[in-house]
Design a protein that fits this description.
It is a single chain. The chain is α+β, with helices and mostly antiparallel strands. It folds into 2 domains: about 325 residues, Beta-galactosidase, Chain A, domain 5, CATH 2.70.98.10; about 425 residues, GH92 mannosidase fold (2-Layer Sandwich), CATH 3.30.2080. Strand 36 and strand 37 form a beta hairpin. It is globular. It starts with a helix and ends with a strand.
Length: about 775
C-alpha cells in the first residue's frame, strides 16, 4: 500500500503535499480526496464544518434500480464520486460522507459550451451527453475548495461554500454558446419515481428559485433553493421528462419554452445561456433552505451577499483551521495527513439543518424554530455513538449539546414518540439496529455536557426503549432476548439493546431515578441470554429457549447478526467486559479468543454477500471496516495482558488508515472510522460511552495538545515512541503515576498533562 501511495503522489501533483506553508496551517494536511475510492465513500468537494451545503462532483449516474431490481453498482456511488471514473457529470450540493446507503445529490449544476445537451450521457459514450472528461492531474481538493478542469469544454470549475450556500466559479473560453445546465432530475441512489415534484421560477435575468421533493431513503424530503448568477443570462429554458400526464390543467395555453418564467413537474432539466469572452468567470451562488424559497434567499443574503469567491473560500478555510487546531499533534508528515484528514472527516457530519433565522422543518413536517440551540440532522447513530459523539464531548461540547437537543426535538415531533435511529432531513429512515441515541444523550449528561433538560432526555430514552412494537423490543422485554424466528438480527439487537439499556441506567442513576435505574440495569444483562456456553459464542435462540442448531459463527448472513459474524459480535458487551470474561471461561480463554480473532484468516466466502464488509477492512477475522468491532482491541485492558491492546492498536492504525484515495479500510460512516483513528492515535478510547472512563491504548504520535473550549489544555507527551516502540512502560498523569489503564473524562477536561513512556518490549 505504501508503494501505491507514492505512485499516487507522483500522479497527483494537484494534492500539493510538498507545498511549503506556514507551520500553523493545518489544512495543508487535509486531503478530502483520501478515502474516495472503493469503501471510503467520502466526497472530495467543498464544505465548511458541519455545513448544510456539501458541494462536490458526481462522476456517474448509476441508478438504484436496474430491470426492476436493486443495482449493486450503485453502492460505489454513496458519495457520488469514484476516483477511478474518467468523467464528471456535474456538481451537486448535498452529500453523505462515508455511508453504506445514500440519498441526496440535489441540484446538479454543469457548465458547457457548444451545442446544448440536456442529457448527462453515459460513461461508455460520454459525448452523448453534457458530462465531461477530466484528469486528476488537473484536480485540486482542499478543505472548502475544489477545482477541476472540464476537458471537453476547456472550462475551469472551482467551488467553495458557506454553511448554507454553494459558490461556483467557472472560467469559460470564448463562446457564443455557453450554458449552465441545472439538472433537477439528478440524484444519488436515484430511480425513475424518486422525484415527487419539482418547481422552478425565474425571478429575473440572474435569479432563479425553486424546490424539489423526493421519496428516497428519506421518504418525505423537500429542499428549497435560490440561485443567483454573476451576469445576466441571455436566454433560458427547460425540458420536461415526465410520463404522459392524465391531467395537466390548462397550462397548454402558453408557449412554455423557451424563456417561460416557471416550470413544474416531476422530471425537469433547465438551462441558462450566455456569451462569454476568453477567460471570463461566470459565478453562481446556490443557497439551500429546508423551509422555503424565501428562506434560501435570506440565507444567501446573510452568508454570501457579494461575489468575492476568494473571500468566501478564505472564510471557510479559516473555520476549518479553527476546528483543526482543537487538537495539535507532533508527528511525521504521513501521520499528520492521516490525523488531520480524519479530523476533517469527523467534522463534516452531523449537518446543520435550519435557516439563519433558526427555522427548520421538523419530523412532523411542520416548521419549527430552534430556540437556544442549532438544529442538526444526519444522525448515523449506529456508527457514531461509539466514538464520534464522545469525541465531540471533548472538542465540540457546544455542538454535541445542540445535537442532543436536536434529537430531543426529534422525539417530541416523532409520530412514533421515539428518538432518532438514523435520521436525515426531517425524516426517520429506521436504518440499522439498536436505539443508540440514548448512548449519545447519556454520555453527554454523564460527562457534564448537558445544558439541556436532562430529565426530558431520560423521558425520551425510556419511551424509546419501551416501544414494544419496534424491532423486537416487546420480545426483548418479555423474554430477555429476541427470538431468532422473530427478527433477522435477533442476537446483535439483543446485545445492542442491552448496552443501550445500561446507558439509560447510568443516566437514571445520575438523575436519582432509582426505579428506572433498577429496571434498565436489569435489562442491561440480557446479553447473557444469547450467549451459548456450549458453542462459546453469542448464538441465535429460539422461542422455546433452545439455541438454534444450524449455526456458523464465521458467516455474516442469516446468523442473527447485522453486518458482522458471531466471532466479532460475541465480544460486543462494551458495558460489561468483566462479566463477559467471566461467562466465557475466564482470563486465559478470553485472551486466546481475541488472539484467535486477529490471527484466523477469514475466507472471502464468509462475507461475499455483504456490501459493507470487504477484504480491505479485515485483519484475520477481525472486521475493523465495520463498527461493532471498534472496541475489541481495547478489551485486553480488562485482562492480565494489556500490552496486547497496545500491540493490536498500532497494527490496526497502520493497516487500516493510509494517506491515499483508497486509504480507508471501510466506510467512514459519517466520521466514526475517523474518530476511532483520532482517539487511538492519542492513546485512549471510549469503550463504553455512557461511562466517564477511557481505556488506554498506544499513542501513535510524539505529542498532542487538546485545546479545550473551557480555555484549558490537555497535553499528551509520548517519550521514545516509534513504529517498534509501541508498548507502554509507565504513565504519569500531572507528574504522578497513573494507577490502572484508564483516564477519566475529568482528567482531560480539567486540563494538565499525561506522559507515556514507550518501549519496544512489553511489561
Amino acid at each position: 500500500m505504501k508503494r501505491l501511495f507514492f505512485s499516487i503522489i507522483a500522479a497527483l501533483p494537484i494534492l500539493a503535499l510538498a507545498q511549503t506553508k506556514k507551520s500553523d496551517n493545518l489544512i495543508q494536511y487535509v486531503h478530502p480526496i483520501f478515502g474516495t475510492q472503493r469503501m471510503g465513500h467520502v466526497f472530495p468537494g467543498a464544505t465548511v464544518p458541519f455545513g448544510m451545503v456539501q458541494l462536490s462532483p458526481e462522476t456517474d449516474t448509476v441508478g438504484y434500480e436496474f430491470d426492476g431490481h436493486y443495482n449493486p453498482k450503485v453502492y460505489s456511488y454513496c458519495a457520488g464520486y469514484q476516483y477511478d471514473d474518467k468523467t464528471i457529470v456535474g456538481f451537486s450540493h448535498t452529500h453523505f460522507s462515508g455511508t453504506g446507503h445514500s440519498d441526496l445529490g440535489d441540484f446538479l449544476v454543469m457548465p458547457t459550451v457548444g451545442a446544448l445537451k440536456l442529457n448527462p450521457g453515459t460513461a461508455d459514450k460520454p459525448g452523448s451527453g453534457y458530462r465531461s472528461a477530466f484528469s486528476h492531474a488537473n484536480e485540486v481538493s482542499e478543505a472548502n475548495y475544489y477545482k477541476v478542469k472540464l476537458d471537453d469544454y476547456n472550462i475551469l470549475a472551482e467551488m467553495t461554500t458557506t454553511t448554507r450556500v454553494g459558490f461556483h466559479q467557472y472560467t469559460f473560453p470564448k463562446s457564443d454558446n455557453a450554458h449552465i445546465v441545472l439538472d433537477l432530475m439528478a440524484g444519488i441512489y436515484n430511480y425513475p419515481d424518486k422525484n415527487v415534484w419539482t418547481y422552478l421560477r425565474v425571478v429575473n435575468d440572474s435569479t432563479v428559485i425553486g424546490y424539489r421533493s423526493t421519496n428516497g431513503w428519506a421518504r418525505t424530503r423537500t429542499l428549497y433553493f435560490a440561485m443567483k448568477f454573476s451576469k445576466p443570462f441571455i436566454a433560458h429554458g427547460y425540458k420536461k421528462y415526465d410520463k404522459r400526464e392524465v391531467y395537466g390543467g390548462f397550462w397548454g395555453q402558453f408557449n412554455r419554452t423557451p424563456n417561460f418564467p416557471e416550470a413544474a413537474g416531476r422530471q425537469l432539466r433547465a438551462y441558462f445561456d450566455f456569451k462569454t469572452n476568453e477567460g471570463e468567470k461566470v459565478k453562481i451562488k446556490m443557497a439551500l433552505s429546508p423551509v422555503s424559497m424565501d428562506g434560501a434567499m435570506a440565507n444567501m443574503q446573510a452568508e454570501c451577499p457579494g461575489w468575492d469567491f476568494e473571500k468566501v473560500k478564505a472564510n471557510g478555510q479559516a473555520q476549518w483551521e479553527k476546528e483543526l487546531h482543537k487538537i495539535e499533534i507532533e508527528g511525521s508528515q504521513e501521520e499528520k495527513e492521516n490525523f488531520y484528514t480524519s479530523m476533517y472527516h469527523a467534522m463534516i457530519n452531523p449537518t446543520i439543518y435550519m435557516d439563519v433565522d433558526g427555522q427548520y422543518k421538523g419530523l412532523d413536517q411542520n416548521v419549527h424554530k430552534a430556540e437556544g440551540f442549532t438544529n442538526y440532522t444526519t444522525f448515523s447513530l449506529w456508527d457514531t455513538h461509539r466514538a464520534l459523539h464522545p469525541l465531540f464531548n471533548i472538542i465540540e461540547p457546544k455542538r454535541n449539546a445542540d445535537m442532543v437537543q436536536s434529537m430531543i426535538a426529534h422525539y417530541e415531533q416523532s409520530p412514533e414518540h421515539m428518538l432518532p435511529i438514523w435520521s436525515n432531513s426531517a425524516n426517520e429512515n429506521w436504518c440499522m439496529s439498536g436505539y443508540h441515541s440514548v448512548s449519545v444523550l447519556a454520555d453527554a449528561v454523564i460527562k457534564g455536557n448537558a445544558p439541556f433538560d436532562a430529565n426530558k432526555a431520560l423521558e425520551a430514552c425510556v419511551a424509546t426503549a419501551r416501544h414494544r412494537d419496534y424491532a423486537g423490543i416487546g420480545y426483548y422485554i418479555d423474554m430477555g432476548y429476541i427470538p431468532d424466528e422473530k427478527n433477522g438480527n435477533s442476537v446483535s439487537s439483543t446485545q445492542e439493546y442491552a448496552y443501550d439499556d445500561w446507558c439509560i441506567a447510568q443516566l437514571a442513576k445520575k438523575l436519582g431515578k432509582q426505579d428506572i435505574y433498577d429496571e434498565f440495569i436489569k435489562r442491561s444483562q440480557n446479553w447473557k441470554n444469547v450467549y451459548d456456553p456450549k458453542s462459546g459464542f453469542m448464538h441465535p435462540r429460539l422461542m422455546d429457549g433452545t439455541f438454534r442448531k444450524k449455526f456458523d459463527p464465521f458467516t455474516t448472513i442469516g446468523q442473527g447478526f447485522i453486518e458482522g459474524n458471531a466471532w466479532n459480535y460475541t465480544l460486543y458487551v462494551p458495558h460489561d467486559p468483566a462479566g463477559l470474561i467471566k461467562v466465557m471461561g475466564g482470563n486465559k480463554r478470553f485472551v486466546t479468543y481475541i488472539d484467535s480473532l486477529f490471527s484466523y484468516n477469514l475466507p472471502d466466502k464468509y462475507f461475499a454477500e455483504t456490501e459493507d464488509i470487504t477484504r480491505d477492512g479485515i485483519i484475520g477475522n477481525y472486521v475493523h471496516g465495520n463498527e461493532p468491532s471498534h472496541h475489541v482491541a481495547y478489551l485486553y485492558d480488562w485482562t492480565d495482558k494489556p500490552w496486547k491492546t497496545q500491540e493490536k492498536i498500532r497494527m490496526i492504525l497502520k493497516a487500516q488508515y493510509k494517506p491515499a484515495p483508497d486509504g480507508l479500510g471501510g466506510n467512514d460512516d459519517t466520521g466514526q472510522m475517523s474518530a476511532w483513528y483520532i482517539f487511538s492515535t492519542l492513546g485512549f478510547y471510549p469503550v463504553a460511552p455512557g461511562s466517564d472512563q477511557y481505556a488506554i491504548g498506544s499513542p501513535a504520535m510524539n505529542k498532542a495538545v487538546i485545546n479545550l473550549d473551557n480555555g484549558k489544555t490537555f497535553t499528551i507527551n509520548v517519550k521514545n515512541q516509534g513504529d517498534k516502540n509501541v508498548y507502554i512502560q509507565k504513565i504519569e498523569l500531572n507528574g504522578k503515576p497513573l494507577n490502572g489503564l484508564f483516564l477519566s473524562h475529568k482528567d482531560i477536561m480539567n486540563g494538565g498533562e499525561v506522559t507515556f513512556f514507550m518501549s519496544s518490549k512489553h511489561k
